[in-house]
Amino acid sequence: MKVTNEVFEEIYSLYAKEIFNVAYGYLRNKDDAIDVVQNVFLKILKCKKDFKTLLDIKYFLIRIAINESIDILKSSYRRLVIFDNEIIIRSPQKDYDEELLKVADCVMTLPDKYKTIVIFYYYDSMKVKDIAITLNLSEAAVKKRLERAREYMKQSLEGSDQIA
Q1: Neighbour tally for 123: CB within 10 Å
Q2: If you count DSSP H runs as helices and E runs as strands, how many of each does the chain have, helices first?
Q3: Residues 153, 100, 126, 15: what is their CA dihedral angle, to the nearest 10 degrees?
Q4: Which band of pLDDT confidence, cut at 50, 70 and 90, is reported for residue 93?
Q5: How many CB atoms neighbour CB 5 within 10 A?
Q6: What is the pTM of this model?
Q7: Average per-residue pLDDT in the chain?
Q8: What per-residue confidence (pLDDT) applies to 97?
Q9: 15 neighbors 8 (Cβ within 8 angstroms)
Q10: Of 55, 77, 101, 117, which residue has the fewest beta carbons closer than 10 angstroms?
């Protein structure tokens, strides 16, 4: 299936929000995430590749979004910007917010191979099978990385509680 104008409108309506969530999970900045969404959909318009299904297009879009987000994170401009923690939906309970912010900060300190899986699994509610397909990994590898990320975060959060 080629990406025609009709197909483009359909994939945009189906996947734009999800692509935004992926980018936002990496960047934690709304404006940068919107830029990534625009770049991703511009690239799919220019793409001459034939896709078998809409799911193939979805995985391709997610892969582009990840790469675009990583490129922005590596840029020298990005290092000068101070970010907020909008990734967490705020609740009226201050203590609850602080705990969620600690967890979000901990997720952002994970190595990229773990952070990607945690963001997909917890923030985007993707299944292990879908993550494996998207990242071109085995399901066992995704489960192991998820386990290691949880362990890393547990140690990191327990260490921060002892300091405070």
Answers
A1: 16
A2: 7, 0
A3: -130
A4: very low
A5: 8
A6: 0.61
A7: 81
A8: 61
A9: no
A10: 77
